[in-house]
Write a structure and sequence with these properties.
This protein is α/β, with parallel strands linked by helices. The protein contains 12 helices and 12 strands. The protein is 31% helix and 16% strand.
Length: 328
């Protein structure tokens, strides 16, 4: 069954978990929707047909990438609950209470999600929409809850970006704009991001780099077809794990030492901060002899900017600026 986004009168408390997704009133966001925004929109999203009958008014966002997408489009007032945020919202985006106080630190369960009476769940990963998390897409559709997954996270053959490009990122902005009747805002944001990307001058020194996302005993690194590769390409870096046909991959320290990259890109996350990574590299007898470690040639990227979304262009600019401050 196709997902439907409908708004019905509030239901009795005893039935809230069964029908919560179909209830809820209008919000101030109605004023932002164009007069012609009543037409249904249907998208083929990761192989699932997503349909909204009208621009969603009550949205649950899961992951920073989806939350920040709506904020960047001026649709933050549609968010009734955010979950699984990877870090603070950047100062450049105006936040909202539902984002400042997430209802779940990790992937939310279906009960907590339905209690918020959403008409759309916008997820950063396909795994956020399963029976064990916010609810599987088919079941949510029967309750009147539409679902949309960031296309960069699609895993099905024919839907998984191979490789991820900025065209995919910009395409998501346009698709989200169409779902919310905010095509003009989406077009403006895409134009701004395209201009900002075009203005970046990549580093031209031919530097090699390792993108270290997480992991200790075995590092989890950016591979050849995902957001890390896209960002490194745009910044002028050569990924030492580019030959691995995946988005991220595990790479043994012996392989890292052998590659001896010129630069190490460190993903800064609350659960695995860049400072801790630097300490680990300096303490390990093998890695501390790497040239990038001895010369402290590190570039730091915040975790929320490392997944496909509106912060990727800024991440490229930041990487280039940090590279300019390094001595090869």
């Amino acid at each position: 069954m196709s997902a439907r986004a409908v708004v019905l009168p509030a239901v009795a408390a005893a039935a809230v978990l069964a029908l919560a997704a179909c209830s809820g009133g209008a919000t101030d966001a109605d004023a932002a929707a164009p007069a012609s925004a009543g037409a249904p929109v249907t998208l083929d999203n990761c192989g699932f047909e997503t349909t909204v009958a009208a621009p969603p008014e009550r949205v649950v966002t899961i992951k920073s990438s989806t939350t920040e997408m709506l904020l960047a489009l001026g649709l933050g007032d549609r968010i009734v609950g955010s979950a699984f945020l990877d870090g603070p919202v950047p100062d450049s985006l105006e936040s909202v209470p539902a984002v400042d106080e997430p209802f779940a630190d990790e992937a939310p369960g279906s009960e907590a999600t339905l209690e918020l009476e959403p008409d759309l769940v916008y997820a950063g990963w396909e795994s956020n929409l399963t029976a064990e998390t916010a609810g599987d897409r088919e079941t949510l559709a029967t309750l009147g809850v539409a679902t949309y997954v960031s296309p960069a996270a699609c895993k099905e053959d024919g839907y998984m970006p191979d490789p991820l490009t900025f065209d995919t990122v910009f395409g998501e902005i346009e698709e989200v704009g169409s779902l919310f009747g905010a095509e003009d805002a989406a077009a403006t944001l895409v134009e701004e991001q395209q201009a900002a990307l075009a203005a970046i001058e990549p580093d031209d020194r031919g530097l090699t780099a390792l993108w270290w996302s997480s992991g200790d005993d075995t590092p989890y690194v950016g591979a050849g077809i995902g957001a890390p590769q896209m960002i490194m390409d745009a910044a002028g870096l050569t990924n030492v794990a580019a030959d691995v046909h995946d988005t991220w991959t595990s790479l043994g320290w012996e392989n890292v030492v052998e590659a001896d990259p010129d630069v190490i890109v460190l993903v800064d996350a609350a659960w695995n901060p860049a400072d801790a990574k630097i300490e680990a590299l300096a303490a390990n007898p093998a890695t501390r002899e790497m040239s990038a470690v001895k010369d402290e040639r590190y570039v730091v990227v915040p975790f929320p900017a490392t997944e496909a979304g509106v912060r990727n262009v800024d991440a490229v600019a930041s990487v280039v600026d940090q590279l300019a401050d390094l001595d090869r």
